[in-house]
Amino acid sequence: MKRPVLLLLCAALGACATRPEPPPSESFLHDELFAAPAEPVSADQVFALSEAMKDFIHVDIAHELRAEGLARGLVDALARRDQLKLDYDSEMTRNAAQAFDARRGNCLSLVIMTAAFARELGLQVTYQSVDMGETWGRSDNLVFLNTHVNVTLGKRSVDFTRGYDASRLLTIDFLPAEQILGQRTRSIPEDTIVAMYMNNRSAEALVHRQIDEAYWWARAAIVREPHFASSYNTLGLVYLRHGDLQASEKVLRYLLERDPRDSKAMSNLVIVLDKLGRAEESNALRERLAQMEPYPPYHFFWLGTVAMQRGDFQAAKALFQKEVRRADYCSEFHFWLGVAEFRLGDIEGARQQLAIAIENSTTRTDHDLYAAKLERLRSHGDP
């Protein structure tokens, strides 16, 4: 499993564009359809520091903060392997205290943890969305569009003297430098970060079939940041999974009014219309979607798994290779390509693909699974 790498850049912050009027989000909510959440759903704990975090900032690294300055001292403490020893782990989205306690998290969790420390020190905090192109992930047959964020730390407001000094701003990113340099960024408000956190929690609840919990997290994300479109798509999927087809259709059609080329909303709406028995509408939308996106994410992967099931390992290999070429970052594609290589008798090729799958894995579960498969292949020649 990859360890995060902190990328430090001098940052110049762009001005925020004027925001449109918020959508009528309340009209999309149906609290009466869902049981009360098992745990409080709020933003209160997102940035809250635990006592262990306070000890870390005020005791463990106090010397570094005094010697190097608050922002640089914090960054160096996060980067040092003898301090936090952070691991990148996309299995769940953690709040600041959870990420600190586990010493791992996805990019959003690690940004939230860093921001919580910075706020405790009185530093200015700014968040950026990083345009890295479309990257996708999958869990329990749900396909997710991944986004990436980072955080910029500035001086304390009491330390400002005169003018603007971009050299005193540090951007912290938890991905390798070669993946980030040259990518466009845009500043996003903290409410969007909180909505992202809540939306992730909703999606993760869906993966575990906790539909009621998923609703309340999606609802909270929409109320917190009505402009964040991803939360509406998640809410539409919650309604779909819960069997509330009219409510799902309403949300998804709103997204398509907002962006007629929203393929995620369109693909979900096709499913809703099929379930409503409106075949003519769903077929028309399916054709439109196919014209926009003839080979959607995981298209060749699904075909490859079908080929594996019928024993056509050569066809499966070719299909998995297509997915690897367009999404080399995906550990699952490399794993299945390795399995196909093994079935074709290419043991060394299988080992190479499993090794790449381990390197690209973003959860501890996947890392351990692929490592066990590789060890078994090395020992017995059978994954």
Compile the SSE list and pairings.
Blueprint: E1 7-10, H1 51-60, H2 62-68, H3 70-79, E2 87-88, H4 96-102, E3 104-105, H5 107-120, E4 123-139, E5 142-156, E6 170-173, H6 177-180, E7 185-188, H7 190-207, H8 211-224, H9 229-242, H10 245-258, H11 263-275, H12 279-292, H13 299-309, H14 313-326, H15 331-343, H16 347-360, H17 364-380
Parallel strand pairs: 2-3
Antiparallel strand pairs: 1-6, 4-5, 4-7, 5-6
Helix pairs in contact: 2-3, 4-5, 7-8, 7-9, 8-9, 9-10, 9-11, 10-11, 11-12, 13-14, 14-15, 15-16, 16-17
What does this protein structure show overall?
- This protein has three domains: about 190 residues, C8orf32 fold (Roll), CATH 3.10.620; about 60 residues, Tetratricopeptide repeat domain (Serine Threonine Protein Phosphatase 5, Tetratricopeptide repeat, Alpha Horseshoe), CATH 1.25.40; about 80 residues, Tetratricopeptide repeat domain (Serine Threonine Protein Phosphatase 5, Tetratricopeptide repeat).
- With about 375 residues, the protein is α+β, with helices and mostly antiparallel strands.
- The protein starts with 6 loop residues before the first strand and ends with a helix.
- The strands form two sheets. It has a five-stranded antiparallel beta sheet.
- It contains 17 helices and seven strands.
- Helices cover about 55% and strands about 15% of the residues.
- Helix 7 packs antiparallel against helix 8 and helix 9 packs parallel to helix 11.
- A hairpin with a 2-residue loop joins strand 4 and strand 5.
- The N terminus is likely disordered.
